[in-house]
Every structure is written in C-alpha cells, then in structure tokens.
Amino acid sequence: METMACFLQASVSKGARPMKIVMAVIKPFKLEEVRDALTALGVHGLTVTEVKGYGRQKGHTEIYRGAEYAVSFLPKIKIEVAVASDLVSQVIEAITAAARTGQIGDGKIFVTSLEKAVRIRTGETDTDAL
User: Fold this and answer.
1) Domain ranges of the chain
2) Residue 83 to residue 22: CA distance in whole angstroms
3) What are the DSSP E strand ranges found in the chain?
4) Which of 20, 22, 17 is nearest to 81 (CA)?
5) What CATH class does 19-129 carry?
6) 24-28, 67-71, 103-107 — which is least confidently predicted?
C-alpha cells in the first residue's frame, strides 16, 4: 500500500495530467466538419473507423427495384480522440456543433478515462504522448 502511494505521488509530482478518450459516432458526411473543428481546438490526432449501427430509430426501410426492405444497421463514422481531461468539455462542444443536423441519427458522444498513453517512436508518456 505504501509503495502504491509513493508511485501515485511520484506521478503527480511529475506533472502527470488525467486524460480521457472521447468517442463520437456521427453521420459520415459530417466527418470533415468535425475534423476541422477539432483541429481548430489544437487536437492533433484522431482515429476514424467506418462502423454500422442503430439507435432509437432502429434503422429505416428503403425501396430497391420495387421491393421494400429494412435497413437495420446504418453506416456511421466512429471518431476516437485522446485528450487531456481539461479539454474534454471543449472537444464535446466542438463535435456537437459540427456534427449536429437536427435530424434523428446525429449520433452520440462517449467519454472514458485513459490510464496511460505511450508514443512508440519517442517513448513519451501520457499527455506528452498525445
């Protein structure tokens, strides 16, 4: 127990700042606007994944060659960005403003804690690695 307390104190004394992962699921055509908004905040990197899913709208129906069929999983974009905790509210505001269309299916934002980050090339850790 004493060793853990010393480790935590050493981490705090080195200026380690808490970090978060902000994950947003948005409509695909909003990606560039969201990227531009995050770049304006000084967010330097993000990961983008093409995903499929549904929320409350549970998909929709389409007509193809005269036949109606249900589209259960809609194409979405998932953006993940690691930031210092003090930037989280600004990142959420930027994503919300850039991704909002006012229509059903605009997406969701999730925030989770990030315990450690390491830049492989230089060995930098935590917020220095972001």
Assistant:
1) 19-129
2) 8
3) 19-26, 47-53, 60-64, 67-71, 74-84, 107-114
4) 22
5) alpha beta
6) 67-71
